[in-house]
Amino acid sequence: MNRGFAARIRRQWPVLAAAVGAGLTFVISGIIRGTYPFGDGPRSTNDLGQQFVPMYAHYRDMLTGQGVGDLLFNWSSGFGVPFLGDFMAYVGSTLSWIVLLFPRDHIDLALFLVDVFAIGLAAGAMTAYLRRLRPGPAWIAVVAGISYGACGWAIDDAAYMSVWLNGLVAFPVICLLCEWILSRRSTLSLLVSPFVIALLWTSHFYTVYMATLGAAIVVVARILAYDASVSWRTRLTGALRCIVAVGLGIGLAAPLLLPTYRIVQAARPSPDAAFRPISAMDFLARLLPGSEGVGATPGLAVGTVLLLLAVSFPFNRAVPGRERIVWTAAVALTVLSMQVDFTHDVWHGFDTPNGSNYRQAFIVAGLLVIVGWLSAASGLRTVLAVAAPVGVVLVLYLVMWNVRTTTTTTRIVVPLLIVIAVGAWLAGRRPDRLGRVAVALLVGAVVAEVSVSSAAIDAQRSKILSAKPPWGDLHTAIRGLVESSDDWPTHRAAPGADQTVNDPMLIGGQGPQYYSSTIPDRVSQQLLDLGFGYSSYGRATIDPQNPVVDAAFAIRNRVVVGDDDVPKLETYDAAPLVTVRRAKPFTSGDPGPFGAQETALGADVYTIPKVLGEKDPDATVSDRRGGLTITPARGATLPVETTLHATCTPGSEIWFAAPTYVGEVLVDGRDWVTNLAPTAKSPGIYSGAPMLRVGTAGADGKVEVTLRLAARTKLPSSPIGCLHPDRLTAAVANLNASKAAAVSVGGHSIRVRLQPGEAAAVVIGVVRIDGWSCSVDGKAGRTPGTRGGLLAVAAPAGASEVSCAYRPVGARMGLAVGALALLGLLAVAGLLLLLRRRPRA
């Protein structure tokens, strides 16, 4: 038995070789580029640095008990937000456990290895599928696996969106499972497959959904390509068994999928985007290795050798005619589907993404590898089967010479690999040592091509997208300050946003910053109403560092990094996380964020003065239609300066709130400060400015706010607020005096013990969202109310305890569907066993 096991292991060496080879190419590309961990160049491009690294850090804290929150809720970010959606959208990889192998300050290395192993898994899975699909030369299967695992999409689009690589893994795995079901009508295949499908769907539902569609295309092609000896009954029952296995697998994943779906439904929406197909030239150019067009064009490249083999497929008479027709049509229609509105919507779940419109490109890459393998496994025995693809690829190469996505690497490697591939084909016709050397040379050339292509893609992409540095001394210093000021759950300690917009997850603490595509719309809108700035359509929040917001949400300590890059800890007067307020709510009548802050705090701390424009020959200020409009004079030298005038109580702080104002503001002690940069896209939609402290009212109470702008702009009708420090101090003192007797916070719950007294409202410094349920003295849970957006629970006279818990909407339904899927799987197992035991006539 040991010999048999060893033999099976030896037969699987191509799978291991492909996995190692693909992962190695990714490592080599990093060495070539000198990026982390092989040099000083930052690797954490865009969302990798801003979202994935911080969320993996938070996930590690959750697993090790070092953080606050659990799988359902994250107390660290955005004043408290759901975490299940982030787990499923960013972290839920089958490889995320790797973070436990490294200390927290090496989280960047853990993410690098997640990418390496995911690319390797995808390559190994594809090689295993190809060898099950059709026998053929093992070395070609290895080359094919490497070409798929490190395809253009994997490197250009998914390597910095690590969780997307789960779709790359899922496509060949689902194909492999369905091939198992089709070729062996065993009970085991039908029972094991749903659990694997469930694991895949919980690793990243978005790209795995695309992988499932791609696998469906492959299964249909397989069924249609069978020869006449296979009956249609056999074909259709095989397809049905595959559908049942996949359906049950998705059902088993429902306890996580359905709540995530409801979280995504409630998330901050992005503006509607219309899909616009790109030109055929730009589209086809991405078939060439080394081409780069992240977010704008599809990463279709699978290397020169596999491209040649894929193109050879229709010309290869060694492949049966029916098979050539079916698979060629499948690839062509799939490519066409990427450019057609309706099928584009189907690929993306009927939600056109803003950016990266070709996220399903890895399916086309996989199909090219599959047909390339089918051609190679059948044998390239004719000159036509070799000459035709060489001619087609050379024409493509020459036509795409100056296309914007083509790189210098592309121009070098394509002709070089064509020469090596043709030479290997000629030498391979002789089964002697020369043929083996040619094969080894070709495999080495493919590995080299993939490596340098990956490096070229990363180099081009880095010119477009910024990257965050890995964990360093500044991270350590900030984390140390946050830990030294830990007062949770009485107060929050905010780490700031000096490193990323998700520093509360990356560094620690409980700050207001948060950037996620699953941020609840109610949280985003509430923070914007309170004067927060934002980017990415409101999915990323910018802390105004406003003392009223700090007081209302219990921020007592904040780390601030100055121009000298030295972090300092600032301490403020703040109310506790849980306050006990009067039963009758206070509602401010002040406009804009000033009134929203007062309502959240429960006290009147601002005065809103009338704002007048300065008589200026270079600009006019008019008060019309609910706002102040500033118009530069015709012929004035841009930018122009103009001053807004108001009167405030002497000594009050002056705050300026104009989220859509593109221009600069003169701030006491800081000179000119950019409110919103001219490069900001569609102010009010893509990005907005946080409210800004501009100075202090002098002894005469006169206030001047000087602006510098280059174009006509509109401000709110009341852009200036006068904050009275004495009123704020009194309000905070009042809230501190009425704090709860004791507060304990669980992973997704909070329990408050009250001092006996009259009827009151227990207000918790968390933005209320759907999913919270609160009870008083153990009675039935109810949906809590709100005070200025904060979670509030009415407590009758004499109440002693209030407890609240968060459960994602859809959790019950998800558990029910999961249970039904499990029962269905057991029923299928029972039926199959019964049919097997039934005596045959």
UniProtKB/TrEMBL annotation:
Name used for this protein in its record: YfhO family protein
Bilayer-crossing regions: 12-32, 79-102, 109-130, 136-156, 163-183, 203-226, 238-258, 293-313, 325-342, 358-376, 383-403, 409-427, 439-457, 813-835
The UniProt record lists the keyword Transport: no
Keyword presence, Transmembrane helix: yes
Matches recorded under InterPro entries: Uncharacterised_YfhO
Record keywords, A-Z: Membrane, Transmembrane, Transmembrane helix
Domain of life from the UniProt record: Bacteria
Pfam families reported for this sequence: YfhO
Origin species: Kribbella karoonensis
